[in-house]
Design brief:
Helices cover 65% and strands 0% of the residues. It has seven helices and no strands. The radius of gyration is 19 Å and the shape is globular. The chain has one domain.
Length: 171
């Protein structure tokens, strides 16, 4: 069982080791190619297709909001696909978050909740395994977020920008 608040999920390698002996070769390849970021080609699995459509729709809404904020045209960055139910509200909430970390948390939780909804009716089929692996990826992504590293990186970027501005003012 996975939960969104887990602190130590299994690694991708451990997951693949578990799957290798129980899945068909075709299903194992499908799992190994399953990613949070939607692939360009249409997946052969309906669960993965739903996931990709939803995630692509969410990303498209974020692109539109970011482009509008910068006064740019978003159309050249929009991926093909329609608007999925609920993604506009999620994108707005993430876009309006106080910090990038808060925005990432909003997006990760929304992704998790969508996968929970997708899970209905899948007990132990390839769709369930796909959803499980996507959840593992979300948990791994959460583990990679490190507030201290982020603060250090931000401070470094800020210092570079500040130093460049000071140098230009002194000219």
């Amino acid at each position: 069982m996975l939960s969104y608040d887990m602190e130590k999920p299994m690694s991708e390698e451990e997951f693949f080791d578990c799957c290798a002996s129980i899945l068909t070769e075709k299903d194992f390849i499908t799992i190994k190619n399953t990613r949070l970021v939607p692939l360009e080609e249409k997946p052969s699995n309906p669960v993965l297709e739903k996931w990709n459509n939803w995630e692509r729709s969410l990303r498209n809404e974020l692109v539109k909001m970011r482009a509008a904020k910068k006064g740019q045209d978003s159309e050249k960055h929009i991926a093909a696909g329609g608007l999925e139910t609920g993604v506009l509200e999620i994108a707005r909430e993430a876009f309006q978050a106080a910090t990038p970390l808060d925005a990432e948390s909003v997006l990760n939780k929304a992704r998790w909740d969508y996968l929970e909804m997708l899970e209905a009716g899948h007990y132990f089929d390839i769709g369930k395994v796909i959803i499980y692996f996507l959840k593992v990826q979300i948990l791994q992504r959460k583990l990679q977020i490190n507030k201290e590293k982020g603060k250090i990186a931000f401070a470094g970027i800020y210092d570079v920008i500040h130093d460049n501005n000071s140098a230009q003012e002194n000219r």
